[in-house]
Amino acid sequence: MSGLLEVFARSLRDAADVPGLELGGEAEPAATLSFGQLQTRARRMAGALAGRGLRAGDRLALQLGNRLETIELFLAGLRLGLVLVPVNVLYRERELAHLVTDAEPAAVVTTPDLAPLLPSGTVAWDVGALAAEAARRVPEPSPPLPGDAAPALIVYTSGTTGRAKGAVLSHGNLEANARTLLRAWRITDRDRYLGVLPLFHVHGLANGVCCWLASGCRLRLAPRFEHERALALFEAFRPTLFFGVPTVYVRLLELPEDAARSIGARARLFVSGSAPLPAHVFEAFRRRFGHEVLERYGMTETLMTVGNPYDGERRPGTVGLPLAAVEVRVVDAEGRDVRDGTTGELRVRGPAVFAGYWRRPDATAAAFDAAGFFRTGDLASRGKDGYLTLHGRASELILCGGFNVYPREIEEVLLEQPGVREAAVVGVPDERRGERPLAFYAGEAAAADLEAACRRQLASFKVPTAFVRVEALPRNALGKVTKSRLPVG
Length: 489
Ligand code: AMP
Fold this sequence. Notes:
By secondary structure, the chain is an alpha/beta fold. The chain contains 14 helices and 25 strands.
């Protein structure tokens, strides 16, 4: 049977009486469930899904926020051997049309506000009606248990260019990821995990929910990170464990000093990923909360692969060392390993790395090298002691008059300047040089001061040719800057 379900059973079955889940973003939880209650509800949900004709291998899309039913559907789907397709709640008609055509789900579980966005002809199931039906069911279906290689999820990549591809993650991938993280981050049933990240992304689902269920710790599931409610929520729930994205850490820095200190005193570990955590945010958080945020790196296709150590130095600006059982390479354009300190493409291999894209044998073949390493498309360099530093996406590399310009290096300089809240650098076509860097920033700083700062700190070919002030940078649901939506030209 699927090792993932076995690991989850240690909490769902063996700790049935233990309160495992609190729901809601207010200080007072809207409801608290034991693991046993959750298991019963998940079984009933499996009954409702089987009753509606779903069988192993069928896709079921979920366009749902962070709610109890999302977790029930996840567990029910795993048990039945369904392939769940989590869908970003911000997706609109065009994105949904692609996803429905590509994944061909038997149905999309959704809410009345989002259902009208689905292409006509799509089978839409209202989550409320489905839950009501599940509540009336008694018998549990018992189809054969899926194996480790069975697909559990198809997660569409948040790729900001081109058509989103569905990454197929198996039960075994999810189990390997959870086991690795439990060990790496010392997660146990004594932890209290505050979950604010969306469950339609691997950060919230494969890291958050899977580590919670595999460890048997207590989860407080909030609908989202809400800055105005963060203080009350942290003080009421008293988490020991928190997973965030850099934008969340930036907001947490605004909490009053004494609150930050007491939150920090109760917490054990803060983890950041999905986008670069600026070194100055790491430092400010350490001063205010008394914690060094553990920055890690991963992707939808690979789950978590690299992280700063739990014990040992958490080095700001780096993503740390390969996680257990993960092999990494940094290679040049010809696929040859580069020397330490040289930037190249990061490639990874390990038990949590997916087997391929949904119905895209061409893209799957192109995604792996001959030795079976996944080509991440991320640029990285390795220090003498093995710590890896990311330098942005290979596709964002700016080729400027024969030089490689890494947007992230310029962005870091900009972020260190007073009056710069956010910064993003992109390459734009240039007749003479091929491409040239263009900077966007939010904040009060004057463009002339930023140019002067770049001239002081960077080689001349890296200095952006213009500094465009914007209200805020466009970001996706995980807080990652979507450079394709910047007002270039
Ligand atoms: P996703 O598939 O949506 O999880 O996005 C994966 C991408 O996010 C990676 O390929 C990286 O470009 C980026 N990413 C994830 N973690 C980090 C990190 N700690 N620092 C910088 N970029 C990151």
